[in-house]
Amino acid sequence: MLEVEDLHVSYGGIGAVHGVSLSVGPGQIVTVIGPNGAGKTTLLNAVMGVHPGRGRVRFGGQDVGRLGVEGRVRAGMGLVPEKRELFSTLTVEDNLRLGGFRHRGAGRAAARGALDEVYALFPRLLERRRQHAGTLSGGERQMLAMGRALMARPDLLMLDEPSLGLAPLIVREVFGIIAGLRASGCAILLVEQNARAALQVADHGYVLETGRVALDGPSAGLAGDARVIETYLGIGTE
Amino acid sequence: MDADIALILLQDGVVNGAIYALLALSLVLVFAVTRVILIPQGEIVAYGALTYAALDEGRLPGSVWLLGALGAGAFLAGLLAERRVLSPGGVSRLAAETLAIPALVAATALLLAPRKPGVAVDALLTLAIVTPMAPYLYRLAFQPLAEASVLTLLIVSIGVHLVLLGLGLVFFGPEGYRAPGFSDTRFELGSLLIPGQAVWIVGCTLALIAALYLFFEHTLAGKALRATAVNRLGARLVGIATALSGRIAFLLAGLIGTLSGILIAPLTTVYYDSGFLIGLKGFVAAIIGGLVSYPVAALAAVLVGCVESLSSFYASAFKEVIVFTVIIPVLLWRSLRSTAEEE
Amino acid sequence: MTTRLLPALLFLLFLGVPFLPGVPSFWITLADYAGIASIVALGLVVLTGYGGMTSFGQATFMGCGAYVSALLTTGAGLSPWLSLPAALLASGAAALALGAVTLRLSGHYLALATIAWAVSLYYLAGNLDLLGRNDGLSGIPPLRIGGLLLTGSREYFVVVWVAVAVAVLLTLNLLDSRVGRAIRALRGGAAAAASFGVHLPRTRILAFTYAAVLAGLAGWLYAHMQRSVNPTPFGLNASIEYLLMAVVGGAGSVWGALLGATLVTVVNDQLQSLLPRLLGQQGNYETVVFGALLVLVLQTAPDGLWPRLRRLFPPARPRRVGANAAPLRARTLSSTPGLPVLSAAGLRKAFGGLVAVNDMGLHLDAREIVGLIGPNGAGKSTTFNLLTGVARPDAGQVHVLGRDVTGLRPPGVARLGIARSFQHVKLVPGMSVLENVALGAHLRGTAGPISALLRLDRAEEARLFAEARRQIARVGLKEHADKPGDSLALGQQRLVEIARALCLDPILLLLDEPAAGLRHAEKADLAALLRRLRRDGVTVLLVEHDMEFVMRLADRLVVMEFGAKLAEGDPAAIRANPAVVEAYLGAAA
After folding, report:
1. Is the ipTM value over 0.95, yes or no?
2. In chain B, which residues have pLDDT < 50?
3. Taking the model in full, what pTM does it have?
4. Which of B39, B139, C369, C407 has the fewest C-beta atoms under 10 angstroms from its C-beta?
5. Packed helices C490-503 and C458-474: angle between N→C axes, nearest 10 degrees
6. In this structure, how many other beta carbons lie within 10 angstroms of the beta carbon of residue C4?
């Protein structure tokens, strides 16, 4: 589905990425964990085309390296960025409708159907549909960002720190939804600081340190790796 | 000053204010979507007026050639910018947008201009000639700098203004022109004699405001433009091409600017360099609206028009001084209200 | 000394160039104009390049100087040498007046405001009888030294370029000073500068006035060279041309201004004579070329031509300022453990309808390290902003050492000895680590703009830099001191921020996520540093997400949720607190 080979991103020295390769298979959940500033966000942004990068990015067999962000959206990639990037002065429903911009030619019924699906997944958004996105709470904003990305019916959804700043209760709900998306056939690339939760839901994991892949393997294996336990999962109490 | 004079001045103010309102709206629109402060909007107005005047006299306006040149420039800029991702389909779309349209417009103008087809056709032809220039300018000057700061874009905007000003002299010459209005009828309203052109101007302004409102509130394309204005990255992530949004915003601004030119051509003699001051007055209004609020900008424009007509009655030599000094207390008031955001 | 002698000698030779036989007077006149334009562009370097403020009104200030000198010499019969101070004073005063009204505006609003008053004053000058309306004033006397009339372009060349040299020296002195660092921080580091005691409005107006006085000097030179003045050369288009010069040459350096002014003046002249001949028609072709040039330069070389030219030469070696200067006087505060340093009660802040902080209380005792933790959006950053004066609380009080300081602005808070770092690192772009850190010692120096211009501030500067080097060494960045601040890795930049904060000689240090982006060993170093600071009497409040780091370091933790305090206590107690586990640490903790 997604294949990244030897990706380099220089980005003002901070959070740079040096020669990262990774792949995500169809319907797979893959996670990238690592400390703050390791380049996780930069990596996702480069894969999505937000930052320029050197290296090869293939999606569904097609080289998308030359496409801009819009082109990659049309190809079926989606990104829920760390800062959510919602349209704060538009209503929740308008945010969602614009999420389906990729399928604007598909007609009213299709748009309505996609909207209903997202509302079914996030009933809270239905309650808030007339509210401006800027007035939502942190958890609701994350749900709206995910809902907006799902409106495009992507084949690959990339999530940047979906648990960031959310109360543990909401985090559990969000991860439940991520696990549920696998059933719908959507592949997921998940960047997380909350390594424990990420490794629980993922099939495969990569550990990114100072812009390089330090470790990778099946999540269950990683979760048992002594180094990962010490650095990311904490010892004993944590 | 008796009541009659006051009414006449007020009427003058409202009519001029309606034009400034149109300009203010287009400036707010362009700024919101692209963060460009469109100084050359004044030149678009002047081009509109002078093109309309030339067509009225049965001459082929020089702006036809300018349109072709800008289109060719935009074609090259488009090729350069998208050289890595262009497909044959993309090239032909680009060529249709930047080369075929000017050719078609030029052919129509060549055919129709000598026949003096009347004000309605003149007006439509003028719109067709001048409006596309704005999106071409966007491709040429602003699109490569889409991520630059507002200040950099403002300086670029000044550069484009200089270019259009110089080209205006080349293509239209130093003489001023006036054109006939859409209507010679006069309406009597009490002691006031309202010329038909004034009704046209106010009517067009109101209609355009209504159309813009409907576009932005009730269409997906309008909402996409607003989304681009609110959050560029967010817009790109849902697949809205921000460059396309920018071109659409410029297209609308070009349309409004040209229309303003057609509307004022019967009111005053327009020279190649008249646009700048007219545009700046639209700015005064747009800035009073904080470059974000459409209704405040429109109201402010009417206010600017009234201040102008009053000051031209009392101290005509100091008209411009007064109009441009009005903005300073307004700016102060705005800056006191908005606690300076650092980031 | 040879480093100073050589440029001086070269400059003297340069002044002699017009007197060489065979140098055409046409080119000398052009050089005179280029010199005058250079002085205006120099002002823009300070204002726009370093201060980040764009002005479309420099020609207006130039006109101010020109008209004042014209009036005084033609009307009152004053000598031009006596009208020079008056001209400078007038343009400075005009800048103060206009600046007081418009400098509160940010970014593009300021630029638009300068357009508005440039247009307004242009029409005013064209309609006032006193100023001769559109015809202007003529019969202005030339400059003379004793019996020597300076009417020829050769003699005037010397006058103009001596003035340029003086302006360059003064500008270089100003930029390399305590005040100069404040001006340079306006662009991109204003919030940080304010939190170290820089009075931002005063600094803005200083840069604005300085640029205007230079423009006034240029206006004076122009008036006595032309011997007549009218509104046209001082209109908006002229102002745009000066901005073009600064942009083309590169507003980030004084040499860029000289390059840009000379280039634009020469190209302009050549275009005016060449293009109509080439195209065989009337028209302002040079406007078209200039406009296109402006767009092209910004598209291809947004920093101007000078930085590209500069790359051809070897980089300058960093100077060693303040290697063995006497230390700065330190604060003499008793910091008995347990003495209350800061206490806040009932703090409340709402943005629109959203209550970010609600009835928040906090107290810090001397020699204590307190951690402020909680989920994102709990109001930690807003609390920080309320304590540091960045935001004003809707309700509640803040006391520092028993004094009510509620509502104090950031510079006032800094004066109390409270220093901070930022969650999103705020180093001034283009400044070295050393200069960035020296900005932290702003309040420990006193030198003003006049002593900066005249280089009377060297002893104090040496002491400030010595202090900065000491603090850089203290955080372990000694070998990075002379690198550009923004070339360091994020973690190191955080340490630079801490060194800058230490330069204030603080009693209280507020750190916003200092450990974010640091590697394991670096975190240990940071913890050791903070413990040393505690021993030396500094109180520390830190917001931190790294639980392991903060649990090991802090004496006490305060947990926030939904804008209010959820719990408070020593790390062990917090770890065991069921409410905290539920809301923040998670059930697995």
Report:
1. no
2. 339-343
3. 0.84
4. C407
5. 130
6. 8
Residue type, C102: T
Strand partners of residue C557: C371, C569
What pLDDT sits at residue A167? 64
Give how far C247 is from chain B: nearest CA, Å. 9
CB C257 within 8 A of CB C251: yes
Lowest model confidence (mean pLDDT) among A149-153, C66-70, C83-87, C187-191: C187-191
Min Cα separation A11/chain C (Å): 11
Establish if C127 touches chain B: CB-CB under 8 angstroms. yes
Q: Look-up: residue for tokens 């999606």? A: A59
Query: What is the H or E stretch that residue A2 is in?
Result: strand A2-9
Find the helix or strand (DSSP H, E) in which C538 lies.
Answer: none
Full 3-state SS string of C359-421: EEEEEEECCCEEEEECCCCCCHHHHHHHHHCCCCCCEEEEEECCEECCCCCHHHHHHCCEEEC
Locate C166 and state its tokens: 């003086």
More confident residue, C498 or C277: C498
Determine the Cα–Cα distance for residues C227 and A93; give it in Å rounded to an integer.
69
Within 13 Å and on the Cβ side, how many CA atoms surround C196?
34
CB contact under 8 A, A87 and B230: yes
- Residues listed for chain A: 238
Chains that touch B (3 or more CB pairs under 8 A): A, C
> What is the distance between the alpha carbons of residues C266 and C556, in angstroms, rounded to a whole number?
68
Contact B26, B94 (CB under 8 A): no
Q: Is the pLDDT of residue C589 over 70?
A: no
What is the maximum alpha-carbon separation in chain C? 93
Higher-pLDDT residue of C522, B70: B70
Map residue C228 onto helix, strand or coil: strand
- Residues of C numbered 325-364 whose beta carbons fall under 8 angstroms of chain A's beta carbons: which are they? 353-354
Q: With contact defined as beta carbons under 8 Å apart, do B152 and B291 qualify?
A: no
Cα distance between residue C112 and residue B331, in whole Å: 10
**Coil, strand, or helix at residue A176?**
helix
> Which residue of C105, C106, C119 is in closest CB contact with B324?
C119
**Measured between alpha carbons, how far apart are the two ends of chain A, in Å?**
35
Nearest Cα neighbor of A195 from C588, C296, C151, B183 is C588
Pick the CATH number of C338-417+506-589 from 3.40.50.360, 3.40.50.300, 3.40.190.10, 3.30.2350.10: 3.40.50.300
Closest chain C residue to A136 measured between Cα atoms? Answer: C354
Intervals of chain A under pLDDT 70: 11-15, 36-37, 165-169, 230-238
**Which chains does C contact via 3+ CB–CB distances below 8 A?**
A, B
Strands C228-229, C148-149: pairing kind = unpaired
CB within 8 Å of A224: residues ≥ 6 apart: none
Q: Other CB atoms closer than 10 Å to residue A103's CB: what's the count?
A: 16
Mind telling me how many Å the CA of B195 is from chain C's nearest CA? Answer: 31
Domain C2-310 falls under CATH 1.20.1330? no
**Chains A & B: contacts with CB separation below 8 Å:** 71
Q: Is C572 exposed, middle or buried (0-12, 13-18, 19+ CB in 10 A)?
A: exposed
Q: What stretches of A50-194 show up as alpha helix (H) in DSSP?
A: 69-75, 92-99, 108-121, 123-127, 138-151, 168-183
CB contact under 8 Å between A94 and B231, yes or no, is no
Both tokens of residue A208? 């990114």
pLDDT score recorded for residue B37: 86
The reply to whether B152 touches chain C by the CB within 8 Å rule is: yes
The phi, psi pair for C515, rounded to 5°, reads: -90, -5
Domain extent listing, chain C: 2-310, 338-417+506-589, 429-505
